[in-house]
């Protein structure tokens, strides 16, 4: 296989991976084949993509201003506001005064938010374990290392949105 053929194969595999990861991370029960972005799963632990991303960002990087979240995700503030309001209404996020600027507020996870994110992360890790159950420990390690290298390389080539936190 020549260089261009390698890149074409990788591009096709990435497209397939993106679709499958949506399902891998979006389905909680085997009969929920239509679910890719609904707010609640059959078992009540899973989060939609935007909720998971927002809660993960705050859990991994600490309390955030709404504007910092919008920048980090490359979204319009009105879009991130709606997503944050949904998480607040579910009791997963709360606002606190920013000690550096009392006019502003910081978003932080509630106890329920930490619990829901933890449950969702455990569920997602279990799905990955199931998907890679036939892989050797060495293959899983190699894949993890190469995927981290790939993510770093892609991060250097795409426009920055305030920096992505390292995955937990």
Automatic annotation (TrEMBL):
Keyword Transcription regulation among record annotations: yes
Keyword DNA-binding among UniProt keywords: yes
GO molecular function terms noted in the UniProt entry: DNA binding
Organism for this UniProt entry: Nocardioides marmoribigeumensis
Domain HTH marR-type: 11-152
SUPFAM superfamilies in alphabetical order: Winged helix' DNA-binding domain
Pfam families: MarR (PF01047)
Record keywords, A-Z: DNA-binding, Transcription, Transcription regulation
Name assigned to this protein: DNA-binding MarR family transcriptional regulator
């Amino acid at each position: 296989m020549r260089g261009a053929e390698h890149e074409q194969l990788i591009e096709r595999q990435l497209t397939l991976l993106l679709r499958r990861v949506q399902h891998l991370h979006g389905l909680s029960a085997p009969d929920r084949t239509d679910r890719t972005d609904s707010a609640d799963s059959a078992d009540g632990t899973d989060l939609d993509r935007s909720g998971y991303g927002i809660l993960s960002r705050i859990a991994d990087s600490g309390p955030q201003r709404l504007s910092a979240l919008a920048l980090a995700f490359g979204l319009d503030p009105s879009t991130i506001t709606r997503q944050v309001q949904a998480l607040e209404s579910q009791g997963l996020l709360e606002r606190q005064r920013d000690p550096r600027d009392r006019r502003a507020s910081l978003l932080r996870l509630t106890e329920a938010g930490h619990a829901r994110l933890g449950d969702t992360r455990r569920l997602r890790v279990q799905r990955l374990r199931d998907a890679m159950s036939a892989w050797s420990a060495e293959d899983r390690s190699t894949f993890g290392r190469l995927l981290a290298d790939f993510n770093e390389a892609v991060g250097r080539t795409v426009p920055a949105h305030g920096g992505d936190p390292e995955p937990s």
